[in-house]
Amino acid sequence: MAFKNKKALLIVNPKAGKQAGKTNLFNIISILSHKFDLTVHLTEYAGDAVDTVAQAEDFGTVICCGGDGTVSQVLEGASKLSHGINIGYIPCGTTNDLATAIGIPKNIRAAATAIVKGRPIVHDVGQFGENRRFVYTATFGAFAKTSYQTPQDMKNILGHFAYLLSGVQELGNIKNYRVALTYDGGRFESDDIILCAVMNSTSIGGILKLPKDEVDFADGKFEILMIKAPANIFELNDLIIALTKSDYSNKNIVYLKSADLHVETATKVAWTLDGESAGEHNSVDIKCLRHAASFIRIPKYE
After folding, report:
1. 95-148 per-position pLDDT tens digit
2. CA dihedral 254, 259, 264, 265 (to 10 degrees)
């Protein structure tokens, strides 16, 4: 497919994962140069990708090489542009939930090749409050902090196991939250929620998973998953089994779909967007921006 604007900005997070993007930079540039006129930028500080993309008025495509947080920053920067851009993703973070969900290869060379051979496909984006955007999840509660509080060195050495270790350390500090959720066509209230996840993905951290036929990335709706505190060890066991099997009929699991929602909590809670800290809030509006992004990938059936 020929792109009208062949100028592409390659954003590389040199610290993501095991510095795979930086190590494979020559190969990435070699592959992408077959299709794009590349400008390369290595991020230097938190929020660098946001600032850089926000000034990319001359580019038709932004390709990010990093983790899910890097993609989220690229989207936030893109929202400040006067025109839409196509986004390519070369995953080299620790978990890479977005890549898993939408079928982007985990191998760096394969992902770069898929961008060269693929085409833009529309994708919904979440808006959190007034200014923040996210690609696949806004989350608070048990284990929500794990993804961004786990030291990068530990992630680099242990990968997914680092998340499990950090999650176990958090078990003793799990809190119940009083939540009032207003969503399309209804209202839900509970005082024993331990996790709330607003998702446009089939996976979060490789732990929470939804069946692939449940999620349409461009239908204008979120999947909302909330978990209630189990009353005893038997309920906990049943809950773990249900989550493992993606069985959301368990009485401690609340599963909803909605385009927009308003979330209120009795106290301020720490939210994360795509695994990155979004600060503490006790009242927030979350909106699904239908078809707000275009990710370059090879369609599933081609």
Report:
1. 678 888 888 998 999 999 999 999 999 999 999 999 899 999 999 987 555 444
2. 40
pLDDT at 205 (0 to 100): 65
Q: 200, 290 in Cβ contact below 8 A? A: no
What CA–CA distance (Å, rounded) separates 27 from 96? 20
Do the Cβ atoms of 77 and 43 come closer than 8 Å? Answer: no
The pLDDT score that the predictor gives to residue 259 is: 96
Tokens for 264, please give them: 């209120």
Q: How far apart are the first and last CA of the chain?
A: 13
Average pLDDT, integer, range 235-264 = 86
Q: Are 82 and 53 in contact (CB under 8 A)?
A: no
Using DSSP's 3-state secondary structure scheme, residue 123 falls into strand
Q: What residues pair up with 39 in beta bridges, in sequence order?
A: 9
- Are 296 and 119 contacting, i.e. CB atoms less than 8 angstroms apart? yes
Token readout for 184 is 């399309």
Contact 39, 9 (CB under 8 A): yes
Q: How far apart are CA 288 and CA 186, in angstroms?
A: 17
* 41 C-beta neighbours (distance < 10 Å), count: 15
Tell me the C-alpha distance between 152 and 18, whole Å.
9
